[in-house]
């Protein structure tokens, strides 16, 4: 009986020792830390519109005098322009010179061309530049009303920057030529599509 008790005691001690040894060998779970979040700098909203540009336009015009009995015509326009814009951040200010040929005739009166000196003020909306424009215009006519005279214009436009060097856009202008050649009051509305190369 003593031998059985000693054997059981020894077996219990060995089992407890083995369990303790095994328990001591169990490694603690490894906790992997999540990677730190990467902070991405915000992309700036505006493009830099500062610089010289030059290009061409194609459009449509309607021209008439006050009571539309002497002259009332419409037709195509095409021209060239060059200018400079300065980007102040969200505000863009610039100037432009443009000359447009007209294919507009009525009652043996031809609208030949309009030359414009423009002031442009716009908002830098990233790749888009909506703007207002105002300035002086010189109208040249031929046929029964042959001459040239200076008036004014105002309008709105939009440029889109396709790349660092190419802009596309559109423009709508209203022209007023009061007492043109001391004969009639003429006005003209033009709408044009434009492409420009920025330097």
Automatic annotation (TrEMBL):
Q: Transmembrane ranges? A: none
What's one GO-annotated cellular component?
Answer: membrane
Looking up Gene3D superfamilies in the UniProt record yields: 2.40.160.20
| Residue ranges of domain Outer membrane protein beta-barrel in the record | 37-199
- May I ask which residue range the UniProt record assigns to the signal sequence? 1-23
Question: Where is this protein found?
Answer: Membrane
Q: Which InterPro entries does this chain map to?
A: Beta-barrel_OMP (IPR027385), OMP-like (IPR051692), OMP/PagP_B-barrel (IPR011250)
- Protein keywords: Membrane, Signal
Q: What family does the database annotate?
A: Belongs to the Omp25/RopB family.
Protein known as: Outer membrane protein beta-barrel domain-containing protein
Source organism per UniProt: Pseudooctadecabacter jejudonensis
**Organism ancestry:** Bacteria, Pseudomonadati, Pseudomonadota, Alphaproteobacteria, Rhodobacterales
